[in-house]
Design a protein that fits this description.
Layout (H helix, E strand, L loop, with lengths): L23 E5 L8 E5 H9 L5 E3 L6 E3 H4 L3 E5 L6 E3 L22 H12 L5 H18 L7 H7 L21 E5 L14 E5 H7 L4 H4 L2 H11 L3 H4 L7 H9 L1 H8 L3 H15 L12 H4 L1
Antiparallel strand pairs: 1-2, 1-5, 3-4, 5-6, 7-8
Length: 299
């Protein structure tokens, strides 16, 4: 099913004082002893490059000229259209660029505003087909990761003492309706790991948004990782190590690539994403094991 046209039908937006499409390079002045925080627009960088002009920015505090190699290796941040906070790009869901719109490759609203302000307004307006499509994609990811059975959210809630594991915020359990907490994939679904009652982590909405797609070692402190190993029965060395693919999911895909393609044929972007992930992390091109690969998946 094609993605619906992107429109702001909620009316929820900020003051309009920020450009939520622009991406900024954010860094500390490179001069020794200077702690001035600086930001440079990628639009400006492209304009300078197109004009053949120098890409360098002077620090307003110490006057040091921060050269192109400093600027271009800096982290990429952007503003949220709703809360108007400048945040890392990881705090925004991805979105295909369309000309000058979405040129950051990410949505205009941060994950937190999307989940707490945009989605509660939009979800009742979604069509049955859109709900069905979302449910189908979740089911496919569950199948590929090896998820089994329904998650006992109350058991997870009790295991974590009713508090967000990351920040310690007290949470209130709800069996139905909107919840102020999330059951997080301790090992991210991005790497094809399953979510179940035993390995889920209880997080508040804000911490779950911040943790999104991050491997545990990239988000938690060492002492938290030790506690998490006890609470989730995931080995400490796994939690504290580098991101890894779920070996069972990888084995299942490689065992029958044709079946994988047929199951996911309605979601070509997901097939491409999973193929690229496996290539980058395992060095294997899954298409090599397919009898036939449609041309539109090779683009």
């Amino acid at each position: 099913m094609p993605r619906r046209e992107t429109r702001n039908i909620t009316g929820i937006r900020g003051t309009g004082a920020v450009d939520a499409n622009a991406v900024w390079r954010v860094f500390e002045c490179y001069s020794p002893g200077c702690d001035q925080l600086m930001k440079v627009s990628e639009d400006w960088i492209e304009e300078q490059r197109a004009a053949g002009a120098q890409i360098a920015v002077g620090c307003s505090k110490c006057g040091f000229q921060n050269a192109a190699e400093i600027i271009e290796r800096a982290a990429r941040w952007k503003y949220c259209r709703v809360c108007e906070w400048l945040q890392p790009l990881d705090n925004f869901h991805k979105h295909k660029p369309r000309g000058r719109s979405f040129r950051s490759g990410h949505q205009l609203e941060c994950r937190f505003c999307k989940n707490t302000r945009i989605n509660p307004d939009l979800n009742p307006k979604r069509t049955s087909d859109q709900h069905r499509e979302a449910a189908q994609r979740r089911r496919l990811y569950s199948l590929i990761s090896g998820e089994e059975g329904k998650i006992d959210s109350h058991a997870v809630f009790e295991r974590f003492g009713g508090k967000c594991f990351s920040c310690g915020k007290p949470l209130i359990y709800k069996a139905r309706g909107a919840k102020g907490y999330d059951l997080d994939h301790t090992l991210p679904a991005k790497y094809l790991w399953p979510l179940n009652t035993a390995n889920a982590t209880l997080l508040c909405g804000e911490c779950n948004n911040a943790k999104h797609d991050k491997w545990p070692a990239e988000f938690y402190k060492p002492e938290q990782l030790k506690a998490l190993a006890r609470l989730t029965s995931i080995e400490y060395d796994v939690l504290n190590g580098p991101p890894t693919l779920n070996p069972k999911a990888l084995e299942a895909i490689l065992a029958n690539v044709d079946r994988f393609i047929e199951q996911w044929i309605a979601y070509p972007d997901d097939i491409k994403k999973i193929r690229q992930l496996i290539q980058e992390m395992n060095g294997t091109d899954i298409f090599a094991g397919a009898s036939t690969v449609p041309n539109f998946l090779k683009e």
